[in-house]
Inverse folding.
């Protein structure tokens, strides 16, 4: 899908671009011909070299933008910089997220707040800024990365699942609000993805999710990234307000 240059001439802003799904997103969007604004928490020379290599390979630009999603002021400063530079953003991928897993009685309110900050409030804040740019352009695509934890009732995921459920409901509402500006908003709900985040969950939690999946394996990062490329492209021009489950058949 990405090899068709379906996003040629477009610019995509991707959060959580340093590793996992986000790193694959940068690669897949660049391969599809998009210039990429790769949002990461901290500057890293080796990561910049990797982005430069991707840019050279695919004949696009890959720019690093550094800010911490935990801090509202940092997000505001980064987004103001985008506005000031008159950067065009055709695609927004709210990918960054944090995982928390513990039963309610062992989950602190602070853990709820920090989880919601990264998984929900930060995407909302970024979307507010980027949507203004897209509204002026009267065109755009927003892809939010949710989770099946926001659709299912897995024990131990009250904070994480609730934050992702909020993001996916936000997707549906925003799709209705922005449709008149030719801005589409969709979400992806992956099952367990083969990333460092999955490793931190432990084998017991992973096995519990595997047992519900017909394919009995983890999702691969490229399987999520390619769906994001599709949803961001004109090939998905009549898909709006949807959450695409990528769960191997649950």
């Amino acid at each position: 899908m990405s090899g068709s240059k379906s996003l040629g001439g477009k610019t995509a802003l991707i959060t959580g671009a340093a590793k996992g799904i986000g790193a694959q997103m940068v690669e897949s969007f660049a391969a599809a011909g998009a210039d990429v604004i790769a949002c990461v928490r901290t500057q890293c020379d080796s990561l910049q070299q990797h982005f430069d290599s991707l840019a050279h390979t695919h004949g696009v630009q890959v720019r690093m933008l550094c800010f911490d999603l935990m801090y509202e002021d940092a997000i505001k400063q980064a987004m103001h910089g985008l506005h000031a530079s008159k950067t065009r953003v055709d695609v927004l991928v709210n990918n960054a997220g944090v995982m928390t897993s513990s039963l309610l009685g062992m989950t602190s309110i602070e853990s709820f707040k920090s989880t919601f900050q990264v998984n929900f409030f930060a995407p909302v804040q970024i979307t507010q800024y980027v949507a203004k740019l897209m509204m002026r352009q009267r065109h755009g695509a927003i892809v939010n990365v949710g989770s099946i934890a926001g659709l299912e009732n897995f024990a131990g995921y009250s904070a994480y699942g609730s934050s992702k459920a909020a993001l996916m409901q936000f997707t549906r509402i925003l799709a209705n609000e922005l449709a008149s500006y030719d801005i589409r908003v969709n979400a992806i709900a992956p099952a367990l993805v083969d990333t460092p985040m999955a490793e931190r969950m432990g084998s017991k939690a992973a096995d519990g999710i595997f047992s519900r999946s017909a394919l009995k394996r983890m999702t691969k990062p490229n399987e999520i990234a390619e769906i994001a490329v599709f949803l961001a492209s004109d090939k998905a021009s009549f898909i709006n307000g949807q959450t695409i489950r990528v769960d191997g058949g649950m």
